[in-house]
Design a protein that fits this description.
166 residues; alpha/beta; Rossmann fold; four-stranded parallel sheet; 5 helices
Length: 166
């Protein structure tokens, strides 16, 4: 039996594309800062990271679809915040973008990480974009942390894992 597992390493053999929604920018700025901090902690050079800003979460798959086709990108990180309002609009956005990220990743065999918060309240979004990563444990009902940082780490693991699969 052979076991394959991605590691948090910086040897990405390519660029990392980070797409950030400007809508709810107070939250998405915090997600981006968490992601950049995680990349730095893992030794990813800033010159290997490209940040693309889009108006909102719905526009992220358009840019990720273009980047995932480019050979210079080893992986894509999508960051946004969709917060429930008075209508079901958030459900349509969340469903559409999550399906597109999954399709793009599978079709182009490249990780496209879903770092878009899908929260019911602003308070939930703030807790999931905390500036200090105090961790999270749903069994303890604590949700503090930074999903941007979490997804950046997961992206590096997936990039490493994909290199191992020949």
């Amino acid at each position: 039996m052979t076991i394959y597992e991605g590691k948090l390493v910086s040897n990405t053999r390519g660029r990392i594309g980070v797409i950030v929604a400007k809508f709810n920018h107070t939250i998405t700025d915090r997600l981006l800062n968490g992601a950049l901090k995680k990349f730095e902690e893992c030794g990813v050079s800033k010159d290997k990271i490209d940040v693309f800003y889009v108006p909102g979460a719905f526009e992220i798959p358009t840019v990720s679809g273009k980047l995932v086709k480019k050979s210079e990108y080893a992986g894509i990180l999508a960051l946004g915040a969709v917060i429930k309002g008075e209508t079901s609009h958030d459900e349509h956005i969340n469903r559409a973008i999550s399906l597109m990220f999954a399709k793009q990743g599978a079709e182009f065999e490249k990780p496209v990480m879903f770092g878009v918060l899908t929260c019911n309240t602003v308070e939930q979004a703030l807790a999931r974009s905390a500036s200090d990563d105090t961790g999270h444990d749903k069994t303890q009902k604590a949700h503090l942390g930074n999903k941007g940082a979490d997804c950046a780490g997961a992206l590096l693991e997936m990039i490493d894992l994909m290199k191992q699969i020949v």
